Amino acid sequence: MARLIALLTDYGYTDTYVAQVxxxxxxxxxxxxxxDLTHGIPPQQxxxxxxxxxxxxxxxxxxxVLIAVVDPGVGTARRAIGVQGTRHIYFAPDxxxxxxxxxxxxxxxxxxLDNPRxxxxxxxxxxxxxxxxxxxxAHFANGVPLEQLGTPTPPxxxxxxxxxxxxxxxxxxxxxxxxxxxxxxxxxxxxxAVYARATQxxxxxxxxxxxAGTLVELPxxxxxxxxxxxxxxAYWGSSDYLEVAINGGSAARQLGVDxxxxxxxxx
Length: 267
Description:
There is one protein chain. The protein has helices at about 15-30, 45-55, 100-105, 130-140, 190-200, 250-255, and strands at about 5-10, 35-40, 65-70, 80-85, 90-95, 105-110, 150-155, 165-170, 170-175, 175-180, 185-190, 205-210, 215-220, 230-235, 240-245, 260-265. By secondary structure, the chain is an alpha+beta fold. The protein has 6 helices and 16 strands. The strands form 3 sheets. It has a 7-stranded mixed sheet with strand order 2-1-3-5-4-6-7, with helices on both faces. The protein has a 5-stranded antiparallel sheet with strand order 8-9-16-12-13, with no helix packed on it. The chain has a 4-stranded antiparallel sheet with strand order 10-11-15-14.
């Protein structure tokens, strides 16, 4: 049975970077199947990449090998890692990119990918996706044990992103953005289950977007069509995170939401 290797990067769709990674995979592991999760992560947006990866992980077949590369620190002292989760295996920079995925798929063991035998002969300082992550993933898919690819490291030493969960205050939650999608909808770090455990309710009536020192009240609804066209709203998204949107528009653009914006959710 062919091993599935899934790819997520910020390499885009214009250059040949993705094709080079796939070429290495197929040359070293001709029997593998390659699945593109996305290559449209905004450049260097590790938080967005972490969210997107976590949304795909629950739907992948057990034993999927994932290569995730959003790597502003490529070529620096940041580690290249391989991680065995409960269900999947990950190859990525140790910069927090795996933080959310590993909450869903807890790590069992990890290695630093420092065995040059399983890299390409020439390793570029700026393209570890092609020269380290892809060959290591291919060798693993061919049956090389994870421990042979590098030096073991305790999973609790892996880098974690800040603000993965909302801040709990007496009045409610303060939430930070994780991702801005293709439509301009903004995903915040509060999950439906977390809110329900804290309040014994399925959803608040409204939330408050903090923008330029003022609070903008947004109705909490089930879906876009419950408010008039062009109206801002909040809702639980398809991955059960709090999202802010505009029916028929871009919340990121029209409300000026960016990764510094917060949302307050009352209890």
